[in-house]
Design goal:
five-stranded mixed sheet, Serine Threonine Protein Phosphatase 5, Tetratricopeptide repeat, single chain, alpha/beta
């Protein structure tokens, strides 16, 4: 039996200033330390682009319904969201360089900071300087996530994969879409595909996944248990506890691994699969 919990969260900041410090020499080091180029980053939150405003408003309305009525309330918004998803552009990267500076699409302060640091590393390698970043809502991948999650709740897995893949075509390493696709693969017991997807995401070097790896690590751990690869499953869950030390799911699954290694069976076991991340597009659901 699979229990999932999704939490609503959305936060944007208006201005963030990041200035990487200079590298420090170790005690006793004789060679001089070469200063790192200074990167001054100004991040400004902005509204959705005009072409995205209708889609963003519809998404916000669906999220409002989700907050009060859960998944049943979301279903009434599915036709409108599906139609608007058809307006998604051919490309929609989470981070891109423009003539005016950098543009990012993010859902929270943490995401903005992680992407800004990543851009800071890129610009530092170029020699540093003053960098401008405009942060806007990540509209179409969030609609795809919401539609995919609603389809999973209806157990319409072909539909779920279709819309999640549509979102992943826009942003192949969106961790919310990857997480929900793993939910669908788990429900279908497609363990080998789930392993390849989770492992590939976690070794991709994506800055947002590296900043928040816990949920995908738990999905990987769950997959590895089902594949009978218990030492690797334990390692995945233990890795997830580095970023989320008190996560109840990881702790419970590690106990299950110990039971399996002691020769116990999972038959009849009620398991809490790793909850979805605190996704800005995820209605609360137990």
């Amino acid at each position: 039996m699979r229990l999932r919990n999704k939490v609503l969260s959305a936060l944007l900041v208006s201005v963030v200033a990041l200035t990487p410090g200079l590298a420090l020499a170790q005690a006793g080091q004789v060679a001089p330390v070469t200063p790192r180029p200074q990167v001054n980053i100004n991040v400004q939150a902005d509204a959705p682009l005009p072409a995205e405003q209708e889609a963003h408003a519809a998404y916000a309305a669906a999220m409002g319904a989700a907050g009060t009525g859960g998944w049943p309330a979301v279903q009434a918004h599915v036709p409108a969201l599906t139609a608007l998803m058809g307006n998604a552009p051919a490309t929609y990267p989470v981070m891109e360089e423009t003539a005016e500076g950098w543009a990012i699409r993010a859902d929270s302060r943490d995401e903005i900071m992680a992407l800004a640091r990543h851009i800071g590393d890129i610009e530092g390698a170029r020699g540093g300087g003053d960098i401008r970043i405009i942060a806007r809502p990540n509209v179409y991948p969030r609609i795809a996530f919401l539609l995919g999650s609603a389809a999973v709740e209806r157990r319409e897995f072909d539909e779920a994969h279709a819309v999640l893949d549509q979102g992943l075509a826009l942003q192949p390493l969106d961790r919310y879409l990857l997480n929900e696709k793993l939910v669908a693969l788990h429900a279908q017991r497609r363990w080998d595909e789930a392993y390849e997807l989770a492992q590939g995401a976690l070794t991709s070097g994506d800055p947002l996944i590296e900043a928040h790896p816990g949920s995908l690590q738990r999905r990987l751990g769950y997959t590895l248990i089902e594949l009978g690869r218990l030492p690797e499953a334990r390692a995945a869950y233990e890795a997830s506890l580095v970023s989320e030390p008190d996560n109840a799911t990881a702790i419970a699954e590690l106990e299950i691994i110990r039971d399996l290694e002691a020769g116990h069976s999972l038959d009849g076991e009620v398991r809490i699969v790793s909850p979805n991340m605190a996704a800005p597009a995820a209605p609360a659901n137990d």
